[in-house]
Amino acid sequence: MFYASIRASGGTTGSNRRIKSKHVSGCYCNINAANLNPTKLNWRPKMNFKARYITIAQVLRRARNYIADTDARILLQSVLKVNHAYLIAHSAQSLISIQIQNFQLLVTRRTRGEPIAYITGEREFYSMKFKVKPTVLIPRPETELLVDLALERIFIDLPCKVLDLGTGSGAIAITIAKHRPLANVTAVDSSVNAIAVARKNVKHLSVSNVCVIVGDWFRKFAGERFDLIVSNPPYVAIGDPHLSQGDLRFEPRLALVAGSDGLDCIRFIIAAAVSHLAVGGWLLLEHGYDQAEMSKQLLEEAGYSDIFFRSDLAGVIRASGGRYEGFRQKSC
What we know:
- By secondary structure, the protein is of the alpha/beta class.
- The chain has helices at 56-63, 69-80, 84-89, 97-111, 116-120, 144-152, 171-179, 192-204, 264-273, 292-301; strands at residues 3-5, 21-24, 27-30, 42-44, 122-125, 128-131, 160-165, 183-189, 210-214, 226-231, 277-286, 305-311, 317-324.
- It has two domains: 3-114, no CATH class; 123-324, Rossmann fold (3-Layer(aba) Sandwich).
């Protein structure tokens, strides 16, 4: 059976205790995982040497003492390079030593709080598997709402120019391009490392209508206009306690933090986008759970029309947007 040998501060030297897990904000994390000293966490297999083998079902059962069921399954799938159905159908299959060792290494990383997506190097988004690294944000299910809103505004049988600001892994841009093959999608990010991941995903997912470039917001698009601009920008405030919790602890701060109120990037994008939207074009933004009213106010002040906001499946207002109708002459 798997066990973790942990020397808790103030505890008895060499004493063992189990690590329980709980579900927080859509992802699994271990209680007190942030306080564990990795050098004192030592995973070892205790196998049935008489039987001389351990099965898929047994290794999963033992790992679940320390990490969530779903996490254990995903990690074993990654090691064996199989899907969930295979684990179920071959639960009695015995594992070889190297497979057990590799699985233990991944489980150890997870007990330290490292996100599953970074451990496995991929995350599913809109039913597609995207490559991810610690240099990009992990694509999240709630961001699929932003893609839904974009697809609603792009005709499937007409060409369209789309700009994805702060593309990261490229999940938004690539998903739009996949579902709207006539769209000409440009994805931009200021991080060279993020752009490398996005380009890898373009190739991995065989998308031909996405252009990925390095750039700072609109700087490389002087005089250029788009039918739709979409962005999931940084919108976490400096000092927000969530930054020290869960997956956010491991994600790049540059892609998360945006000033004292989290609105610096949103302010800039809303103000600058009017110079890069075609008449009738849409701006769509993801934002924080408490930023909808301020986003609406910023859109109104910038002169957008048809302003709206939408909630995600959890009922959280997650996205806002507006249409650019050109400059309007103010009445006296």
